[in-house]
Amino acid sequence: MTLKITMPGKQNVFREDGYGAADCQLLISPSEIARPRQRLKALTDIACHIPTLSVLRLEYNNIGNLSEEFLQSCKHTTDVDISDTGLTQLSDFSFRSIEQLSTLKLGHNRLSSVPKATRNLTTLKILDLSFNIINKLGCSDFSNLTGLTQLFLFHNQIPNLPGCVFQDLKELRILKLGSNKILTLNDAFMNGLHKLETLNLASNKLSSIRKGEFKSLTSLSNLFLFDNQIASMENGTFEGLVNLTELKLASNKITQIGIRNTVLTGLPLLKSLDISCNYITYVNDDKLNPPPFSHLTSLENLRIFSQRHKGLSHLPINFLEGLKSLLSFQAGSLNIKELHPDTFIPTPQLWFLDISKNEFTALTLKLFHPIPRLNSLYLSKARLQSLDFLIGANLSRVTFLQVSKNDITVVNETVLRSLPALTYVDMQDNAFTCGCSDAWFVNWMENDNQTQVVGAGEFTCNYPADLKDTKLLDVELQFCTVHFGLYCYISTTTLILLTLIASFAYHFLKWQVVYGYYLFLAFLYDTKQRNKHTPHGCQYDAFISYNAHDEPWVLRELLPELEGEQGWKLCLHHRDFQPGKPIIDNIMEGIYGSRKTICVISRRYLESEWCSREIQVASFRLFDEQKDVLILVFLEEIPTHQLSPYHRMRKLVKRRTYLSWPRAGEETGVFWQQLRLALETKDGSSEENPILSGVQAL
């Protein structure tokens, strides 16, 4: 049973420590308080005779001094709360009669030292002396409190800690010393306290920490050192803290030198590190040697936001190296202008990222490729002008996106489609442009059932001027939407027209189209050949273009004469083409790899598709290079009207002289002499090489 005794004039309030209303409360009326202290003592005696009473709460009474007799009748009470009673002094034997006292709360009083009455209470487990004016601790203050597990001394005026002060607290698990004036630790944690799990030294005046300062705290899991004046930490400062999981060093004077990796060693289980609000800064993003957190392979939560002075300014490329288990990274308000694309390569497990309140303007999509597990992304007040970097950023698992207070004007469909898991987005206080560019975004906000858009009804227009301050959802944008049927009509009509044009071109301009296609291929090949700058000239003297039906003449007449008698090196289809290579490639390599091209023309030649392509490539080389590279040899008489379907051949014959194979029984010597002369001419222009003048022209 819990009993609370309250004198008139005091209010029953709920304090920060969590102790509120009791199971049973006795109020003493004004007529009963002629002598309030005696009345309170009498009422306490009555209460303590209740067999089931275990908790006695006397807070908010004006006790002042606690005598030995005051609690003499409370032998069976286990928890006593005398907080906020104006205590300044206690008798040395105030609690001697309480046999099984386990919790004693003396906070919010005026005690200037640890009362002797608290010594030798071997059953005591929790002692609260917070919010007093204790200004000194001695070696005997906690004598024989061998069962104590929790000790609260925060909000006092303690300046230092004697090395022997906690020597008897062998079972202590929680020690809170925050908000004092502690300057040095004086070896207080270098011996004993092997079972301590939580140590709070926040809001003191510590300026440095020596090596091994906490080496005896082998069970410590939580260490709070924030809001001190720590500027120096020796190598091995945290040696011995093999079970530490949480370390808070925020709001100190730590610089980039203070977080070197030789300081943060010996912490194999550390999961949370807070170094925000310090003086860490870097002049560039060059690699650090060595990186500061390379030993913290178990770290899951890193907070470095709000560095003072100029901010962090730059985040070195390998700043996060070694943090393979990192889940949360909070790096807001650091005055960072850009992040290297390789920044997050060491943190593939990253789940939560806060880089808001920086000076990015723009980010690159490659920055997010190494962290595909990202779930929450905070980018508010980062001066972003666009969200296009999210396209292709591989953020398919992001459910929470905050991009408020930026300079975003338009949100396109592709950006939001690249975040398929998005369920919550905050885009408040951006400078939206109201027009057709935002029509899809407005429609998405109104109709999407998956994503909650925070404050969508308050989004206002910034541009154009006539719509400034108008609610985005109130702007009429229906005229911006084109019906799907119109798209179908336009695309179908376009397809039909293209089909008609293609059919017309194929029927009436078939040869011109085919010629143009191969002319283009020849142009590409010619450009490629020019870029090679081959120093050794051509591989062949002449490429022979002929129809398969004329192959007997080539093999019996042409080949023996030119290669056998005259010594030229010829390129022939059946002999010199490379097997397996596309035939058009063989043709172009043969023509451009030869000084001349000899076209053996017959009616069958003119009907052959491949022969037509060969002469087209050769003619392109002729007119492109302006060199005498083409020799026409007619095996038979072909009237002009039969050449008309092959207008390119007709133009060549009209512009140039040619050779005709003598009729049966005629002398062939002149023919071979003229052909030899044609092959001997240099690669000059046709006007400079009148070798074939005097030969019959068409």
UniProtKB/TrEMBL annotation:
Primary residence: membrane
Entries under InterPro entries matching the protein: Leu-rich_rpt (IPR001611), Leu-rich_rpt_typical-subtyp (IPR003591), LRR_dom_sf (IPR032675), TIR_dom (IPR000157), Toll_tir_struct_dom_sf (IPR035897)
UniProt entry keywords in alphabetical sequence: Glycoprotein, Immunity, Inflammatory response, Innate immunity, Leucine-rich repeat, Membrane, Receptor, Repeat, Signal, Transmembrane, Transmembrane helix
Residue ranges constituting the TIR domain according to the UniProt record: 538-679
CC annotations in GO: plasma membrane
Cell compartments where the protein resides: Membrane
Transmembrane segments annotated in the record for this chain: 484-509
Biological process terms in GO annotation: inflammatory response; innate immune response; signal transduction
Bilayer topology term: Single-pass type I membrane protein
Example of a GO MF term: signaling receptor activity
A Pfam family that the UniProt record links to this protein: TIR
Family: Belongs to the Toll-like receptor family.
UniProt-recorded name of the protein: Toll-like receptor 13
Provenance organism: Salmo salar (Atlantic salmon)
